[in-house]
Amino acid sequence: MTAITEPDSRTARQRVFLVSLAEDADVLPRFRAAFARAFTGSDATAYDVDFAHETPVGPGIVGIAIAPPVTLTAAHLAALPDLRIAAVASAGYDHVDAAGLAARAIPMTHTPGYCDIEVADHAIAMACALLRNLQAGDAHVRAGGWSSRAVHARRITGATLGIVGLGRTGALVAQRAAGLGMRVIAWAPRTPADKASALGAQPVATLAELLAASDVVTLHVPLTPDTKHLINADALALMRPGAALVNCGRGGLVDDAALRAALDSGHLSGAALDVLDTEPPPPDHPALGLPRTIITPHLAWLSPESEFASYEMAAAAIATLLGGGVPDHLVPGQAKVGA
């Protein structure tokens, strides 16, 4: 924790922090500008708006925008007596003590939609890389080979992409895949069939049906107790021999031990993972030794545009609440503003 002591000249002022590992010099000026634009009270300059790489604590801090992997824990909350709002600068909020915030009736917001485009692009890029077997081609050349037939690339157009979940990101993946001429199927029980069809996806009734029919399966559902290890040994056994798996959702959706067995046996041709169950992974994490696998460091969400969007949305939420309004994107089940 970073203890914040107020300078003498600021003893009457309240403070707002953006907490992030970002290094870009434009982050704080843009966060401050977004805060000022959204503030509807009498004077936005009454608040000091600052930046920190670690979660600050101490009196006088009324608003925190917090971006993963930085955390907001019970210990932090105990040392933030004046906190009025926590704005999570991401769609997910498993890095924040949501129960602790709710216990103190502190509202929490998040930033859904800020990186949907990036995640969809990343998932499609991974699916295409697996079908074209780019990772094997790269390794083949670096090992001294030069045979196109040794790589076993497949055609993207006409391949079947199975999408698990048709929320905002899954819907964008469906549209992109359809644009590439892929056959798109989707298991999304909460999505009406006509909506799935409008996205270019053919709905299927069960996950088992999707797994058996797909050349590549891509995961776009949240991690919940019901979806933990959704892709386990039984699910992987249902996939087509030679199929591939993409996970840009959450690491806990996939049973790593079962995935290793499916890759080691040759049942799956490859996998592409942007997320792991432990991040960053320790040197002995099982995923790091998986064969025929592309692993990226949870970067599917990231572009300059998406990073700034998440911070600006968080700034607007804090400014709106401090100005007396109701912020957008309050997390369901958390404290209600004005309740």
UniProtKB/TrEMBL annotation:
GO terms for molecular function: NAD binding; oxidoreductase activity, acting on the CH-OH group of donors, NAD or NADP as acceptor; transcription corepressor activity. It comes from the Bacteria. Signal peptide: none annotated. Keywords: NAD, Oxidoreductase. Pfam families: 2-Hacid_dh (PF00389), 2-Hacid_dh_C (PF02826). Residues 124-300 form the D-isomer specific 2-hydroxyacid dehydrogenase NAD-binding domain. PANTHER family: D-ISOMER SPECIFIC 2-HYDROXYACID DEHYDROGENASE FAMILY PROTEIN (AFU_ORTHOLOGUE AFUA_6G10090) (PTHR42789). Belongs to the D-isomer specific 2-hydroxyacid dehydrogenase family. This is C-terminal binding protein. It comes from Trebonia kvetii.
